[in-house]
Amino acid sequence: MVITEGPEKMDEFFNARAETYDQHMDANVEDFQKFYRKISHPIPKTSQEIKILDLGCGTGLELEYIFQKAPRARITGVDISEKMLEILLAKYREKSQQITVVNRSYLDFDFGAGLYDYVVSVMTFHHLDYDTKKSLYERINYSLKKGGKYIEGDYVVSKAREGELLTEYNEIKKRDSLYHLDIPFCRETQEKLLRSAGFNKIQLLFSSGESAIFVGEKPKEGP
Ligand SMILES: C[S@@+](CC[C@H](N)C(=O)[O-])C[C@H]1O[C@@H](n2cnc3c(N)ncnc32)[C@H](O)[C@@H]1O
Question: Ligand 1 mean position to 200 CA, how many Å?
Answer without folding.
Answer: 25
